[in-house]
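Attaching the record inline, Q. Sequence:
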Amino acid sequence: MNNDTKQIAGVIFGMTAGLALYKFFSMPKEKRQEICTHIKDTTNELLNNAEDTVEKVEHYMDEFNSKGEGDVIDKLYVLKKMFRNLYGTKKNYLL
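Structure, as predicted:
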C-alpha cells in the first residue's frame, strides 16, 4: 500500500470517526448510556468466554491476513464483520 492510499484511508477513517462521535454526542444522555451499557455488557460477556472469543478473533485475523497487500477495502470489510459478530445487535444504535 503506497502513501497516497494510506493517507486517503486515514482521512476517510478520521471523517467516519468524527461523524460517529458527532452522532453519539448529539443523542440524549439516556440513549448514550444505553449504548455504553451494551458495550460494557458485551465486553464482559466476551471476557467471560475468553476461549470462544479468541477462536472467533483468530478466525477473522486469518481471513484478514489472507487478503493481499492492496486489498484495503476487503480487509476493512473483514474487520467490520468481526466487530458486527462480536458486538452486533438487531438494534442499530448510531443509524
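DSSP finds four helices and no strands in the chain. Helices lie at 3-26, 29-48, 50-66, 72-87.

More tomorrow.
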